[in-house]
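User: Predict the complex with alpha-D-galactopyranose.
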Amino acid sequence: MAKSIQMNELTLGVCYYPEHWPEELWEDDFRRMREMNISVIRMAEFAWAMLEPEEGRFDFRFFRRVMDLAHQYGLKVILGTPTATPPAWLTHKYPEVLNANVEGVLYRHGMRRHYNYSSPKYRELCARIVRNMVEAYKEHPSVIGWQIDNELNCETNEFYSEADHIAFRAWLQERYGSLNNLNHAWGTVFWSQTYTDWEQVYLTRPMVNHSPNPHLALDEKRFISANTFSFAKIQADIIRELSPQHWVTTNGTFGHLDNHELTDELLDFFSYDSYPQFSTIFPSSDENPLGDRAWSMNLSNVRSMSPNFCIMEQQAGPGGWVDRIEMGSPRPGQIRLWSYQSVLHGTDLLVYFRWRTATFGTEIYWHGINDYHNRPNRRVREVAQVGEEFAKIGSFIAGTAYQAEVAIMQDYDNVWDGELDKWHGPLQRQSVRSWYKQLQYQHIPTDLITLGTKTKLEALLQYKVIVYPHPAIMTDETATLMTQYVEHGGKLVFGARTGYKDTYGQCYMQPFPGPVAGLCGITVEDFTLIKGTIGASELHWEGSRLPSGTKAVGFNEVLSVESPDVEVVAAYATEYYKGQPALTRRAVGQGKVWYYGAAFSEPVVDALIDEMELTSPAADWLDAPAEVEVGIRSANGSSFLFVLNYSGEQVTLTLKKSTVDLLTGAELDGTIEMPAYGVMVMKILTP
Ligand code: GLA
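Assistant: Here is the predicted structure with alpha-D-galactopyranose placed in the model:
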């Protein structure tokens, strides 16, 4: 069941680090926050050395003073548990708590997240600081909730300390019961990797060519996820025991962690840290990149854990570390635009990072709302504008949820297996990006969902279309669920490399696509990676809008029709498999299933959008250029249409029905000019 934050109105907050500032500044800071309609602060998540300056000596006075003052100013407080930054006394005395790189070299004090989750000593010391902290602050009237740790698995999501190897063995013993089972699951007879004693089993260590056993590598990621979960659970259990009146969350979506399970089992809702500019600072091979708008895909993933969520850190200026991460300044309007990007996708509590830029430490260039000098600047004015607007529209929008009829589906096993496996991982990244992008450009709102063992048919049936691009690992249970989805009227799309691996990542001795070959009514007769000897074949797709010469990228599977009711939609037009089926369609029950033997490129996605007769739900309301994102939040018969202009140019919208821009109160009808980085929120009627 999806777990959402419960807010009555859109609420603004800010990350505040009182330990970075002279105490004389606090009061002025809090007064100015309230003037900007900021009513929540998050703090203390890195303050272990202040809360427990020596082993076993706790001091909670400093933050209590801050909280007393915050309370006077009507500010609510989110407290972070400080376990992402163990103090120097701790790691010095107990070096076994440190994480290590794959060579076994320990990460030392001086940065953050340099600990492992496995050391019994670290777990004990974390439990103790959390217990003492919650006891100290649970009655304080300003506290509304707790953030566990900070960004679990950020900085690194690999763990190779002694304690981790030991914990991995215990996890494997539980999972496999015997070494014999483990040897089978990992196919260790290959290259004489057979284990004869549990002590011989390790997480990845330095290997020739850095090539670990692939089945071990998959289990390693599952183990890291389970271990991170059990580390977080210690804290969640303590907070729930001592402070049941407060909510519990954690922030960030980082690798090797099943955040869906974490949310379902431990949290009240998920929180995310949104820095859209990250998607613009790395070179992209895309001709038509989504840029900062690509961040909407990350937010769509967060929504699949919590339809309404908290942004625990929203970008409030250029980001930068002293030694890495270099960003230009957000242009005027972009901080506000990105704030509404988060709101559109479901945030109801939006906390900026951070109030003021730090004057010392690694993050002196990670800009907060305020500059070092503390005078009003354009970022302060922009956030104040968002504050004013939230006051106007916040009570209508809170609790409404993003609406989508299309879902792109993934699952953790395939994502993790695909990190190592070059024969399907890269296809997944290419295809998900193409689908999300083209659906965005055509204003078709899309969810990014994660299939898990607990996913029910009803949850899938809310979507007209599900694209499950390259599920290499496919169990019989998943195949049954997919079949039921189609039989009940769903439209399902698979791409190349579907269904050839089992749950250990071993290959089935069956024709591809294994467990869903029957559903799709095809098998794969021949196949090639597009590399070296083979260039991607062109596609022949009669009656589609595919530009001539469009290629089937990434991988080419030559399909063989096995069932008379299968229709060949497109064929390969070049290469030695010229004329053979590339894309098929089959009606099953009330639905349809498509199988495409390649990775999805943008033109192919566009043609498939037509083929599946997908249209924008906003089409009755407006015509908008591809530069803008269009989405709808609804609940209980109220619907709000968001239009976000990511481009640096003014754009023209044509409204087909008259309505009102809730942010300005302006009547909207006919042709509207929308400024660069502009935002509009309109109340609309939906059927
Ligand atoms: C992350 C962390 C913050 C801060 C920002 C900027 O989101 O949670 O503590 O470090 O990045 O780097």
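The longest helix spans residues 214-242.
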